[in-house]
């Protein structure tokens, strides 16, 4: 009986079920691209399946962030430690975002993907561009007037502000907060299991998404905009394999190879879903099970990073702003570059962790550089392709920052990390 249970399944699908999760996701993505390219617009039939998968993930985000953040905060029992970790996280996010947008500007200027293009204003852009919020409005919107409404609307930044405040308050009231903490910890465990159930359908949802997108845009889109796509992705690779590698090796004193091996599932899912918020459950799993990071650190840092840490978005904003300046024949000076760096950092921090949000925030950066907002029309056509890469960078950056913080706080199991 035991021998039969251990023997390979004779089913045709036996090998599929024995594959590692990330391999299933990659196969689903490649098959989706193939199917979409073969059947073209008919691939729209897969759109409801892909949207159903994304909705299922979005369903998890608010309760998962709420429960995991409070669980992480209350487990610390030390508000000083909480403040220290939060300060480290924000400092790392700001520094890496600044480096990211600088890399984007340098590569965009050097390779000049927009040279030779004579773009004209596109009137239809008004339907695509929306007014980006000012910095003051962004700060004012941090505190929700109604936290329940913030949860219902999926305003993750407001949810985090409310949740951090509630978590700190539960810690400060001592034993009186114990019943609520116990209940939330139990709910957090249930959410982790619920997340695992939903994510088991990821290969199929991602297949549907990629088939639909490829069928809608076609492979010709990739050929037409290959240069700007290439520059953006080159910047992405530099940020991941040079900046993050140096940070893990020189600051955390850990193996970069083990780090990248441990985050491959999160990187793959983030690339295919183009949503750092939707990838949050997988990121937490990788941090806990593959990198050996304590749950209290990962819950707080990754939830914060899903909203604040947008290295990929900063690169995207930098490269595409330079690209449009070249396309319109607008010469940028030193002051313009400094303004682009600052506003790209602020805009990337203010962008939500959902697909396409950086396109909206880009209007703020273009206005800062004195470029026509209509230029977003050409970027909109390839935004989804760029969105996948920048989301992957965002998620890798979240996990890198969490690893650095965990190492500095001695909250990482090095044996687990090295066994990845």
List the helices and strands and how they pair.
Elements: H1 2-6, H2 14-18, H3 21-39, H4 47-76, H5 79-111, H6 135-140, H7 147-153, H8 156-172, H9 178-199, H10 202-217, H11 220-224, H12 226-251, H13 256-262, H14 264-273, H15 276-290, H16 295-308, H17 311-328, H18 334-350, H19 357-368, H20 376-408, H21 414-418
Helix pairs in contact: 3-10, 3-14, 4-8, 4-9, 4-10, 4-15, 4-16, 5-12, 5-16, 5-17, 5-18, 5-20, 12-17, 12-20, 14-15, 14-20, 15-16, 15-20, 16-20, 17-18, 17-19, 17-20, 18-19, 19-20
Reading the helices and strands in chain order gives HHHHHHHHHHHHHHHHHHHHH
Helical segment tally? 21
Shape annotation: globular
CATH superfamily: Sodium:dicarboxylate symporter
Indicate the CATH topology: Proton glutamate symport protein
DSSP E strands, number: 0
In whole angstroms, the N-to-C terminal distance is 32 Å
- Percentage of residues assigned to helices: over 70%
Mean pLDDT: 79
Main CATH class: Mainly Alpha
Structural class: mainly alpha
Structurally, the number of domains stands at 1
- Please summarize the sheet with the most strands: none
Rg over alpha carbons = 22 Å
DSSP strand (E) fraction? under 5%
